[in-house]
Amino acid sequence: MQHYPTDKEIIKGEIADYWFEDGILVSLSKSIKRTVPLIAANVELVKQLTNNKPVPLLIYLKNSPVPDAETRKFSAAKLPEIYSAMAMVAQPGLSKFIMNILFRLKKPPIPMKSFTDAQQAKAWLKEIAT
């Protein structure tokens, strides 16, 4: 279970909270059903945090309701606008389930990989970001 750092500024969003670590945007997902308006608002929040520059994301996933097809399509289309790569840290099986839902028919628009260990996830992001 990931906890909030005590030495970083936490930016609170509706679907996730964010902070920066070593040039990586870290996200703590919330258990809320994603909708197009929520995703759109989150994209704007991330763009503000990153000055409109795609950055690597380390996301700690939580179980949340499966979004509808329109929301999944919108979310997948917006990923490359805000992230250069995505490392997902979750319990075994959860990130694979999410990847299958979002990208079952086509490959992800950015490099994505799932992990159960945050240190391995960070190392992978740093490796592909250079």
Tell me what you see in this structure.
The chain has 130 residues and is an alpha/beta fold. It has a single domain, classed as Transcription Regulator spoIIAA (2-Layer Sandwich), CATH 3.30.750.24. The chain has helices at residues 36-50, 69-82, 94-103, 118-129, and strands at 11-12, 16-21, 24-29, 55-60, 83-89, 112-115. The chain has a 6-stranded mixed β-sheet. The longest helix has 15 residues, at 36-50. 23% of the residues are buried.
Describe the protein's topology.
Layout: E1 11-12, E2 16-21, E3 24-29, H1 36-50, E4 55-60, H2 69-82, E5 83-89, H3 94-103, E6 112-115, H4 118-129
Helix pairs in contact: 1-2
Protein name: STAS/SEC14 domain-containing protein
Domain DUF7793: 18-128
Pfam families: DUF7793
